[in-house]
Design goal:
Elements lengths: L8 E7 L7 E4 L2 E4 L4 H8 L2 E2 L2 E2 H7 L3 E6 L4 E7 L3 H12 L6 H19 L2 H13 L13 H4 L4 H11 L5 E6 L4 H11 L9 E2 L13 E5 L6 E8 L6 H18 L4 H8 L8 E7 L2 E9 L11 H19 L13 H25 L8 H12 L5 E7 L3 H4 L9 E3 L7 E6 L8 E3 L1
Parallel strand pairs: 10-14
Antiparallel strand pairs: 1-7, 1-8, 2-3, 2-9, 4-5, 6-7, 11-13, 11-14, 12-13, 15-16, 16-17
Helix pairs in contact: 1-7, 3-8, 9-12, 9-13, 10-11, 11-12
């Protein structure tokens, strides 16, 4: 993407190989790699026969980094000078595997420390618990970095096998932005990237997932300043390609108008002191695994300002009722429950703006992703996939949080609220602790 006059230049190289790609068939041979090998390989790709790539980038003014997700590994840099030299380092780095048993063994301790750091993070653990409870077979239920035990099984040869299988031109993408010459970038890539040979491996993500979640909730006791929670609804995977892209756009926008900062639900929960500014929701899609989720921290209990659980549940129901009525284009006068006319008009206007943005977002991506009736798509997504059997709640709390700290979720505290004509099903906790999420069906 040429940007004439821009001082800083960027290059991003993505490999279609993530933490879930541990089982695959290559050249008729079935392979099962240790969990965490994609992340391990990301670390070791910076080793080159003539030194470490980090030092080479630094010598040319480049600022590199990398990450591994469930579905991809990415390497990138930015610089203000010596762009071509840095690009050559990046391309040579990802196409030159260089692993020794000594260097692999040395990295094992470093990655083990990183895994323990994630194990001490409430945010990481709450999502890993969510995935483990939601998926029975899919490898997304395994942490991206693996476990200390699994990385202990990684060898130099297993790294070479994964690199040969996935670090290939047909399985990589290079994106460049800044004051650059696209033809020159293409020429450098053609010069340094080896030609494609053979077919890509066939990946195996396990047996198809049943939509019913194997475990409905999980609570973990950790040393945390505030309880952390995550709620998810398991969704059937869409067809790959443009349908998956369209579903992700619709899911993200549905979450935004339900729980975005301008929504009545967010404002009520925030003002009640049950969530903080870190509360968010969205749609996540990993190959053959999809979910709608919401997560955040629960602030200290607001029992002094809330009369009873029943009152808060009623307020949460109002918020979703407003939203659904807005989607159904009911006149604002029919929405005057306990909020002002101005609040209702503002949320109706916001809903219509978001729906308009849904049209624009999808049409800007590709014509094939166009949705003729975004209202219908939003309602179908929410009502079709948000059901009790597909729901998982995960929570991290301190050992004494039941008495004085925010949200607490476990099997004997949470009870379902009855649904009404808007299809609302919320959750309330006994005693002083109140959950913050409601469900729509």
């Amino acid at each position: 993407m040429p940007k004439p006059g821009f001082a800083r230049r960027y290059a991003f190289l993505g490999v279609d190989f993530g933490s879930i790609d541990t089982a695959f068939t290559r050249n008729g041979r079935k392979l099962r790699m240790p969990d965490g090998i994609a992340h391990y390989l990301e670390h070791k790709m910076f080793d080159l026969p003539d030194g470490n790539a980090m030092n080479l980038f630094a010598a040319h003014g480049g600022s590199p980094n990398a990450f591994t997700s469930y579905s991809m590994t990415a390497y990138y840099f930015d610089c203000t000078e010596n762009f071509e030299e840095n690009l050559k380092i990046l391309l040579r780095m990802v196409t030159t595997p260089y692993f020794t048993e000594e260097s692999v063994e040395k990295e094992r301790g470093i990655i083990g420390q990183e895994i323990r750091m994630y194990e001490d993070s409430a945010e990481s653990q709450v999502y890993e618990d969510l995935f483990r409870c939601m998926f029975r077979e899919h490898p997304v239920r395994v942490p991206i970095a693996g476990t200390v035990q699994s990385v202990g099984e990684i060898t130099a040869q297993s790294l070479y096998d994964c690199h040969a299988a996935f670090y290939r031109p047909a399985n990589m993408i290079l994106c460049v932005a800044g004051d650059v010459d696209p033809e020159r970038v293409a020429a450098i890539a053609e010069e340094l990237v080896p030609p494609e040979t053979g077919a890509l491996p066939e990946r195996d993500y396990g047996a198809p997932e049943q939509m019913q979640c194997p475990c409905p909730r999980k609570e973990r006791v950790m040393e945390v300043s505030m309880p952390t929670f995550a709620l998810g609804f398991k969704c059937p995977p869409p067809e790959p390609g443009f349908e998956a892209m369209r579903r992700e756009i619709i899911g993200d926008i549905a979450a935004e108008i339900l729980t975005g900062e301008s929504s009545p639900l967010y404002q009520r929960l925030y003002e009640a002191g049950l969530i903080d500014a870190g509360f968010s929701a969205g749609y996540e899609s990993v190959k053959e695994a999809c979910l709608l989720s919401a997560s955040g921290d629960s602030l200290p209990s607001c029992r002094d300002t809330i009369a009873a659980d029943r009152d808060l549940a009623e307020h949460r129901g109002e918020c979703i009722a407003h939203f659904l009525k807005g989607l159904l284009r009911v006149e604002p006068k029919e929405m005057l429950l306990h909020t002002s006319h101005a609040d209702n008009k503002r949320h109706l206007a916001g809903s219509r703006i978001v729906l308009h943005r849904l049209h624009l977002d999808i049409r800007c991506v590709r014509p094939e992703c166009h949705v003729n009736d975004p209202l219908h798509e939003l309602r179908r997504l929410l009502r079709g996939h948000c059901s009790v059997s597909r729901q998982v709640v995960a929570c991290q709390r301190d050992s004494d949080s039941k008495t004085d700290k925010g949200l607490s979720i476990n099997s004997h505290q949470i009870t379902p609220l009855s649904s009404n004509r808007f299809g609302i099903l919320g959750f309330k906790a006994s005693g002083d602790q109140l959950s913050t999420i409601i469900r729509i069906r």
